[in-house]
Amino acid sequence: MGATISREELIYNEKIKGKENVNSALEPNFDWVIFPKKIQEGFRTHSTHFALKHICNGNFKAPLIHHLKSGSKILDVGCGLGLWCEEIANEFPDVNVFGIDLITNFSSKIKPYNCKFLAGNVIFGLPWADNTFDYIWSRDLFTEIKGKNWLNLLLEMHRVLKPGGIIEFQESDGYALSAGPLLKNVQSNRLHEALKLRDIDFRIACRLGEIVKLAGFEDINESYHSIPIGKWGGKIGEIWASNLKESYLSMQPWS
């Protein structure tokens, strides 16, 4: 069984002229943190999906063209709105694509015939038999899975993956590199402490390879992509800066 891990490193080094003027009323409250699942989050998810697709030159890195055959089964763990599932189902019409997520507001009622969604909490296990899937994919679970649950989740993925199957992760390093003083303070102090209390590792991408190995996967490959944040990075940089800002400002109490 092989594993492919793609990590996105966020680079923030936009030069700001003059003194920073920060409205304290706009600063997010990090006493209690959770990422919302509302309409504005759906818009952010769409823009993030297409930005990452552009950066990674497609929806996947694994050699799926040669690996999949008619009747193969694909699973997206933590599928969110289901955008990736629908695109893959259209790209490979002879395979069956499944997505599972805690939320139920999937992207559209009219979906490809070979694409199915299931609502479920993946930390309690995956509701499929052993050796079910030929390929498992997952992206950006780093804000959703507690540190203590990562190994168990990977063991479950290993269980439902067929011998010789492929698992691929696309996770972000949650901290921006070369950050300015304000963002650095938010990341290193407020956000870090809030997430630490809830056992959320914003930098899980940096050690995901070793957890994958512990779960029993072999032939592990890792790749890294730097994502610009700010106008200096063009359209992708502007999208990522907007996403970062909206994510921080929309954090809400953990219920």
From TrEMBL:
Residues 74-165 form the Methyltransferase domain. Signal peptide: none annotated. Gene3D superfamilies: Vaccinia Virus protein VP39. SUPFAM superfamilies: S-adenosyl-L-methionine-dependent methyltransferases (SSF53335). It comes from the Eukaryota. GO terms for molecular function: methyltransferase activity. Pfam families: Methyltransf_25. PANTHER family: 2-METHOXY-6-POLYPRENYL-1,4-BENZOQUINOL METHYLASE, MITOCHONDRIAL, METHYLTRANSFERASE. This is 9722_t:CDS:1.
